[in-house]
């Protein structure tokens, strides 16, 4: 029994530490049979990056929290909820090396965190702290929902948006740094100020690890007011130290790579001046008491996903090296599997191995005829429905003058439940399509 400030919470019994590598199936089979037996066994699930995964022990802990709430809601609200969320925030504070727990707020997901930061930018325009035409810089490969938030909050408030045109495939951090500097120059070219830079730590599609420390340093040198790092994939996937990164705001989901159920994320806000105007977009009774307190109560709802962070930490600590060991093994395995696939198909990776975390972009055979985003989505559906393979497909428009270019890339993920057979299944499915003379034009609308 685990105790949260005196209230007993039942978890599954602690199990011996496990180790995992892509070449060793003994411990992975233990995990598959116990913690991830609820996964559909007919699917090669190599898309952890989209929705993450939650082990059975954490699901059990979540259900216990839900039952404790339903048993006596008033007691739960007055005596349990705030303490439990504070414990989760404290764990996150240590995971990301924040200065103080007050810098950590728990929200539903990274999209909610983006709304909080961008809403604050919108108020700065409306209240005259920013001038019409002042600039927000974002990466061209920013997540679609974040782009929509920038449109909803910044553009409507009178801000100008400059996109950083990133190359893909990418060969080095220097390419990204150069394009970022060019975007900042464009932003300042008309005498306007760059008020906010929105930088991904791991872009979603195509997936590349961005040199955020370098970009934050450049922002400071160039007088950018604030930096927001959208790191939806970071916790459990790549190294995170918010002090070293130095951004004003940093967010990551815990349901993608840290084994929590959906949905839970944190927003780190570096100590802001007293009276700063950051607020949760859902206004409730705690409005004005600070973002962390506001976020901890936005009305009657299920808060269990925010309360199971201790159970998720307990789960990862069963593995050799904890979350650091999991990250390293996932990275090594996804690189190994990516290199196996491109060798089988005669293609190439979308980035060097040191620019990926637990996901990597794998070029698909050009003969598949992926010529649009629609083709990419149809091929993804075809692989799911006919081959039992779940993997996102990215379309890269050909550049002028390219002959027979690779225009389709698969984003493969690796998590502790994956086995080599998942990637062989994907390899064989694509080989079968190629051997059969398949092209995307054969797929119906």
UniProtKB/TrEMBL annotation:
Residues 57-334 form the Aminotransferase class V domain. InterPro entries: Aminotrans_V_dom (IPR000192), PyrdxlP-dep_Trfase (IPR015424), PyrdxlP-dep_Trfase_major (IPR015421). Keywords: Pyridoxal phosphate. Pfam families: Aminotran_5 (PF00266). Gene3D superfamilies: Type I PLP-dependent aspartate aminotransferase-like (Major domain). Residues 1-11 have a biased composition (Polar residues). The keyword ATP-binding does not apply. The keyword Membrane does not apply. It comes from the Eukaryota. Coiled coil: none annotated. Residues 1-25 are annotated as: Disordered. This is Aminotransferase class V domain-containing protein. It comes from Lupinus angustifolius.
């Amino acid at each position: 029994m685990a105790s949260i400030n005196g209230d007993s919470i039942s978890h599954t019994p602690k199990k011996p530490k496990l180790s995992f590598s892509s070449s060793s199936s003994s411990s992975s089979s233990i995990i598959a049979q116990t913690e991830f037996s609820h996964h559909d066994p007919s699917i090669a699930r190599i898309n952890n990056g989209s929705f993450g995964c939650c082990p059975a022990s954490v699901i059990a802990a979540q259900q216990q929290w839900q039952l404790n709430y339903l048993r006596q809601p008033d007691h739960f609200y007055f005596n349990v909820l705030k303490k439990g969320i504070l414990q989760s925030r404290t764990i996150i504070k240590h995971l990301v090396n924040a200065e103080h727990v007050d810098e950590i707020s728990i929200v539903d997901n990274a999209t909610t965190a983006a709304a909080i930061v961008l809403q604050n930018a919108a108020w700065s325009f409306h209240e005259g702290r920013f001038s019409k035409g002042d600039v927000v810089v974002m990466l061209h490969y920013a997540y679609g929902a974040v782009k929509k938030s920038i449109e909803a909050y910044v553009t409507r408030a009178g801000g100008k948006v400059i996109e950083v045109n990133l190359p893909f495939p990418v060969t080095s951090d220097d390419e990204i740094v150069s394009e970022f500097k060019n975007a900042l120059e464009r932003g300042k070219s008309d005498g306007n100020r760059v008020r906010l830079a929105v930088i991904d730590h791991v872009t979603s599609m195509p997936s590349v690890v961005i040199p955020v420390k370098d970009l934050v340093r450049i922002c400071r040198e160039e007088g950018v007011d604030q930096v927001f790092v959208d790191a939806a994939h970071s916790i459990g996937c790549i190294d995170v130290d918010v002090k070293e990164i130095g951004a004003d705001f940093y967010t990551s989901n815990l349901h993608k790579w840290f084994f929590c159920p959906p949905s839970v994320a944190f927003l780190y806000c570096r100590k802001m001046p007293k009276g700063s105007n950051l607020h949760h977009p859902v206004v409730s009774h705690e409005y004005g008491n600070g973002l962390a307190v506001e976020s901890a109560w936005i009305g009657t709802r299920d808060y269990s996903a925010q309360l199971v962070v201790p159970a998720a930490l307990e789960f990862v600590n069963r593995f050799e090296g904890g979350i650091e060991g999991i990250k390293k093994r996932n990275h090594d395995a996804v690189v190994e599997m990516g290199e196996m696939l491109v060798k089988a198909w005669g293609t190439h990776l979308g980035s060097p191995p040191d620019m990926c975390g637990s996901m990597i972009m794998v070029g698909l055979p050009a003969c598949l005829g992926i010529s649009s985003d629609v083709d990419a989505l149809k091929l993804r559906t075809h692989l799911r429905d006919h081959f039992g393979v779940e993997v996102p497909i990215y379309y890269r428009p050909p550049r002028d003058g390219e002959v027979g270019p690779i225009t389709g890339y698969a984003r493969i993920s690796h998590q502790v439940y994956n086995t080599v057979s998942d990637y062989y299944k994907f390899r064989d499915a694509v080989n079968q399509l190629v051997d059969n003379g398949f092209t995307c034009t054969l797929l119906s609308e």
